[in-house]
User: What shape does this take?
Amino acid sequence: MKELYQIYAFVAGLLIGSFLNVVIIRLPQNKNMVSKRSACPKCDTQLKWYHNIPVLSFAFLRGKCGFCGARISWRYPLIEILTGLIAFWLFPEDLSELSLAFYAFHFTVACIFICHFFIDLDHQLLLDSLNLYLLAAVLPFAFFTSQWTFWAVGGAVGFGGTLLVTWLFYKIRGQIGLGGGDIKLYGILGILLGPMGIVFNIFLSCFVGALVGILLISLGKTTKEKPLPFGPSILLVASFQIYFPEYAHQLQQWMF
Ligand SMILES: [Zn+2]
Assistant: This one.
């Protein structure tokens, strides 16, 4: 029986992933999410309903617009499949109210992470609106599942700690290291991960960010002067901590 529900969850995940694609494109442009049907970015023809079926349309059209033949990014089906797989994989063993509430929470966080990740890649922007949605999900969860010292200190360390480091960096080097969106995201994640968890995240995300930067510079994909979006590193490390807590804990104990 669980397998049947899981397959439903996968299909629902594909459809939600399709919506996330719309959010990733329209939210940074302040466009309406639901009123207008999507159009081809190249020829601006409004898509038919059968062009909007997750994954299948992309496969049928062989990755091209049905009207003008412009290439459609592989990112669309990728995000749909990723969201579907997350919905499938997170599905709880039992269907108790508590398990379903945890499921809803973890899936919601994953969806916000996906939007944050790709919008930051595209625009170097961690939107306030997405940070607010994340806060609205994280705060009640933390309130009910952990001691107030855990989430309050975690949030203070995440926000205050990174703000202080950024300020010191600015005083010494005259450069802004982290953006405001990064600092807010660290603060919200601190509420969820607690003081030790957020310190671990800050260390590891800086390490991952530096590693990706060095890799991209050595491959000639970017230059030292060009700022790299930092949000994806924070989000990858946070996903590791939230969805693979045992492994993250082992690494955390080994590091500290
Ligand atoms: Zn087109």
The pocket of zinc ion is lined by residues 40, 42-43, 45, 65, 67-68, 70 (CB under 6 Å). Residues 217 and 224 are 7 Å apart (CA to CA). The mean pLDDT is 92. The chain has nine helices and no strands.
